[in-house]
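Hello Y.,

Per our agreement to keep a running log of every chain we model this quarter, I'm adding this entry. I've kept the format consistent with earlier entries: sequence first, then predicted structure.
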Amino acid sequence: MFGDKAKSLPHSVALILLPEFTMMPVTSAIEPLRQANRFAEKALYRWTMHSIDGQPVAASNNILTMVNGDLEAVPPDSSIIICGGLNVQKHADRRLISWLRKVARRGVDIGAVCTGAHILAEAGLLDGYKCTIHWENLPGFTEAFPELEATGGLFEIDRDRFTSAGGTTAIDMMLTLIASQHGPDLAAQVAEAILHSPIRHHSENQRMSLPARIGARHPKLVSIIEKMEGCLEDPLSPSVLAKQAGLSTRQLERLFRRYLDRSPKRYYLELRLKKARSLLLQTDLSVINVALACGFSSPSHFSKCYRSFYGRTPYRERGLPTPAAAEATMEIGERI
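Predicted structure for the entry above:
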């Protein structure tokens, strides 16, 4: 396994690039291996890049990336890394799913960076394993695969599966794997060379702290927003939030106006709508089920709020026509 002491060198790693893959986690996975070879003064690792059909792949930044071949050209016994990015659901090619299941039966260790975990989940290769995915994709991932243990950490290494959340988290994951195979001293050398120190623990948070995100450190405001983020499906009323924070409703209103320039009700609505957009773009949940998952009991009210905030209906967000009944309901509501 990747995390075990290497039995034969060089250790082969095959990166499978999906269309619209994110470039940063791919380079973040490769560079630590290159530097490990450099400091060891021998080839500890070798890597190849592949696409499903062997053709060059355009990343999400539109850079066209050459590959070493298709899936059948992957060197035997390579560790596999699925490299995802945007619109990963659209790129869950059945050929890839079938191939992954076949190589998994051979006991090959298989991982993913960024949204590649979605492909492993589709193939059933994360059942019984801890895993992670980028925080923007986590709500949709947990809705689509509720049986999986998605931790939301920077990365997870669980036996013969390894996943990282994207961005620079692939660096930490690869450094951890290098340390397990060739010792912490080599991993530390690599980390210093790429100016990535200290090596982060897998359980660290992906996102900035809440005070950093909202630009305010008021303890009661932070506590209230944490409650809001934890209760998107069953929203709490302003009066309940105020009471739990030891404030009056008027004090709650002033607090939000002072630090966030909006009412608590408006801020809460925006949180729910942002989650709704994530679910619309990253899952196959119906619009009605998305509405319910984000605390809207009325689909027409959800559509009206969504259109007011994003300038388009939930249906058009998915490129679908808005049902006539829903359009009529919204138009009536706007005239009232």
